[in-house]
């Protein structure tokens, strides 16, 4: 194992962790690295003490009697495992122990609203149904970068004491106070207890927490932009904060501890806007492991799908017990106009709050301001140490890359115009900037080449209506899953572009050394913002159905989602971009039918993925076994709300999906099946039976869908929608069949 790699060892459950491209931190103890050891579920015998067991294992592996400096963390509340400093040879010996599920590095992970809730239909006021007393007993656990507790979004005015079920604590450390809104806080990033604080110094955790459950705060805006009432999906809910990220990233071993505590503390929903850059198997994925144990006790985990789109197979949240969320644009967009010296106006994207007062400034292209020591190709990107300050100062600089903006500002540029790699979202920068589409950028360059003294000005941003919404954002990670090809991921889409929500004044809105602004509300984009929208919806649904399992809530949200059409061709614009569709909070509380999954179903699913009986018993904590019959379980027959299958693109096929639905609508109801195919579809479908007659609540009935076709090729997935309708409810499940070259 390469030096500088951190490993996490877990014992009795699965969890999925997001890893970043940053290499794992080298430990201070020579060749020792931090590993996570996963031991599965906690043994049920009363005399078992996890900490003693963990220390005993370390003593056996290391041959040392004093191992306090070896043990980093012990997971002992919700699942079994520990993080420890080990050499490569010790790691190998530990991984070979029969009772160990996995040993893997603790790497650095990556962190991935005044109108968004209205856009989804969850409007404030008497038209939106709420059960405030139950909502007030709902707790959302936010695993992120901490929180700014003084924000109006987290005031506890009007709140009573924490719910009786709450078992957590306020260990927020210095300069941090909990209240009856933010009822718990823990910090896993500090090197010592003296330095512990759950305070948010990046703004990310504050933003995500307020999207999920922030109070309604009128007249919220970012320097006048996006003005309105900022609020979360469940404003009366409580928030528990688990800080696992700092300015160096998010450690895997810390995330494991956060899951361990959050599950034991009694949260109802976990929101985690952190993702992996690489996609490990489930038993080496901290988020998947933690979420598995959360699911086992009735807690739903909602996770960002990732920001590595539009490339295919980049979705990192792939476990079926994790609710994976893609990001969409909403009906609002921020634009910053560029007015050229000849009066022509170019429309760019930007959250620009700076006013140039209409003054025209000279334009200079980065490549025309290159130092002799730098290539033209690097200078056009405005890369560090490539621009001549004398040619840049006092001018608006054109850069082909967003990465060169700070360099231009550092050298005295008054503003910048940038070729926009992501035209569906705007960015905040620390001086006047507008991001132009490729065509408009070329038009600007042409103007400069044909004009003797080209000049321009960048106007302050304005808010416009976006008629293209909802549309999946280009940056949102796409499927299909590289781990399980027959489970459709991501699951759902929610607003994730230019979301205005609470922010931490302990950080600038750009985290730039040149940005002295401090704000209470800011605008961010990413699947990080989409994730807490769905966490808020999940909590909202749970307030109407407190006894529903995580899979029932997930199914209700997926089968009632707004249908979305492909915006182009190929994998990147199909269900592999948006999953079931766009979340609809109002319809989700009354889905009619749900696809329910139990812990045993997931164990059988893992058995079908060739996990051994020994490992499954360790993970599940029970007597689960992989019989020959169960081991033949096809992943596509997991009772999931969507249906997906990978086939040969060059041969005819005939495949089946087996499903069971549970009646949660009306006591007596009859559902008829209808398959809606897209124009030109080559697929043939058979649903058996085509009619489901329900006679009681919670009654279960099974059916089978058979899909057949000649060869479908490898360029474009083929899909349809199965809809079960009783005249009131329309329970929709996407069916997608694909092949890859």
From TrEMBL:
Gene Ontology biological process terms, A to Z: proteolysis
Residue span(s) of domain Peptidase S8/S53: 136-579
PROSITE patterns (alphabetical): SUBTILASE (PS51892), SUBTILASE_SER (PS00138)
Family classification: Belongs to the peptidase S8 family.
Keyword match Protease: yes
Keyword Magnesium part of the UniProt annotation: no
Name of the molecule in the record: Peptidase S8/S53 domain
Organism: Arabidopsis thaliana x Arabidopsis arenosa
Pfam families reported for this sequence: fn3_6 (PF17766), Inhibitor_I9 (PF05922), Peptidase_S8 (PF00082)
Signal sequence, renumbered to the chain: 1-24
The organism's taxonomic lineage, starting at the top: Eukaryota, Viridiplantae, Streptophyta, Embryophyta, Tracheophyta
Catalytic residue list: 144 (charge relay system), 204 (charge relay system), 528 (charge relay system)
Domain of life of the source: Eukaryota
UniProt keywords, alphabetically: Glycoprotein, Hydrolase, Protease, Serine protease, Signal
Inhibitor I9 domain location: 34-112
Domain Subtilisin-like protease fibronectin type-III: start-end pairs: 637-737
């Amino acid at each position: 194992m390469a030096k500088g790699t951190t490993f996490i060892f877990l014992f009795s459950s699965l969890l999925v962790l997001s890893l970043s491209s940053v290499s794992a931190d080298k430990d201070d103890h020579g060749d020792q690295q931090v590993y996570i050891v996963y031991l599965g579920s906690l043994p049920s015998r009363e005399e078992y003490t996890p900490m003693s067991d963990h220390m005993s294992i370390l003593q056996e592996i290391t041959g040392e009697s004093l191992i306090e400096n070896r043990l980093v963390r012990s997971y002992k509340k919700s699942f079994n495992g520990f993080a420890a400093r080990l050499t490569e040879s010790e790691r190998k010996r530990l991984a070979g122990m029969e009772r160990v599920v996995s040993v893997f590095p603790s790497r650095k992970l990556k962190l991935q609203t005044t109108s968004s809730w209205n856009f989804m239909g969850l409007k404030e006021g008497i038209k939106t149904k709420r059960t405030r007393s139950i909502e007030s007993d709902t707790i959302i656990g936010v695993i992120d970068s901490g929180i700014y507790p003084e924000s109006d979004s987290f005031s506890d005015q009007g709140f009573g004491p924490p719910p009786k079920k709450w078992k957590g604590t306020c260990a927020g450390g210095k300069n941090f106070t909990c209240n009856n809104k933010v009822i718990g806080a823990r910090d896993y990033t500090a090197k010592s207890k003296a330095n512990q604080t759950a305070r948010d110094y990046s703004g990310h955790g504050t933003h995500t927490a307020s999207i999920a459950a922030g109070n309604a705060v009128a007249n919220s805006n970012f320097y006048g932009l996006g003005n309105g009432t900022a609020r979360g999906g469940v404003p009366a809910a409580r928030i528990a904060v688990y800080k696992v990220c700092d300015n160096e990233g998010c450690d895997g071993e810390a995330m494991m501890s956060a899951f361990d505590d959050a599950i034991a503390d009694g949260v109802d929903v976990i929101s985690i806007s952190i993702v992996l850059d690489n996609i490990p198997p489930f038993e080496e994925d901290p988020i998947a492991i933690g979420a598995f144990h959360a699911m086992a006790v009735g807690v739903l985990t909602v996770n960002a799908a990732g920001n590595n789109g539009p490339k295919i197979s980049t979705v990192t949240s792939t476990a079926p017990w994790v609710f994976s969320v893609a990001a969409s644009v909403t009906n609002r967009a921020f634009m910053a106009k560029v007015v050229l010296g000849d009066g022509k106006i170019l429309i760019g994207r930007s959250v620009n709050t700076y006013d140039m007062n209409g003054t025209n400034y000279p334009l200079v292209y980065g490549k025309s301001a290159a130092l002799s020591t730098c290539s033209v190709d690097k200078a056009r990107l405005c890369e560090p140490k490539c621009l001549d300050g004398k040619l840049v100062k006092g001018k608006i600089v054109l850069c082909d890359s967003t990465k060169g903006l700070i360099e231009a500002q550092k050298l005295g540029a008054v503003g910048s115009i940038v070729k926009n790699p992501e035209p569906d979202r705007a960015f905040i920068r620390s001086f006047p900037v507008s991001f132009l589409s490729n065509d408009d950028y070329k038009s600007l360059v042409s103007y400069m080449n044909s004009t003797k003294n080209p000049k321009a000005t960048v106007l302050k941003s304005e808010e416009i209506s976006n008629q293209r919404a909802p549309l999946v954002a280009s940056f949102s990670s796409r499927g299909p899953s590289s781990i399980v090809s027959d489970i459709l991921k991501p699951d759902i889409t929610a607003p994730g572009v230019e979301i205005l929500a609470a922010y931490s004044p302990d950080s600038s809105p750009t985290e730039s050394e040149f940005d002295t602004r401090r704000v209470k509300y800011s605008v961010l984009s990413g699947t990080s913002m989409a994730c807490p929208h769905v966490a808020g919806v999940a909590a909202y649904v749970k307030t109407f159905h407190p006894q529903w399992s995580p899979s029932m809530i997930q199914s209700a949200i997926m089968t009632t989602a707004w249908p979305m059409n492909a915006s182009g061709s190929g994998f990147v614009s199909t269900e592999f971009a948006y999953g079931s569709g766009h979340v609809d909070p109002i319809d989700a509380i009354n889905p009619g039918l749900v696809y329910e999954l139990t812990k045993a179903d997931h164990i059988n699913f893992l058995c079908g993925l060739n996990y051994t009986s020994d490992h499954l018993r360790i993970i599940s904590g029970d007597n689960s076994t992989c019989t020959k019959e169960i081991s033949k379980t096809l992943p596509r027959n997991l009772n999931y709300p969507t249906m997906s299958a990978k086939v040969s693109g060059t041969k005819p096929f005939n495949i089946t999906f087996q499903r069971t639905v549970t009646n949660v609508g009306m006591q007596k109801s009859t559902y008829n099946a209808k398959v809606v195919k897209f124009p030109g579809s080559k697929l043939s479908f058979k649903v058996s039976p085509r009619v489901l007659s329900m006679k009681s609540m919670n009654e279960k009935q099974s059916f089978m869908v058979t899909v057949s076709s000649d060869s479908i090729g490898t360029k474009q997935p083929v899909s349809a929608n199965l809809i079960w309708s009783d005249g009131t409810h329309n329970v929709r499940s996407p069916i997608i069949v694909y092949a890859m070259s």
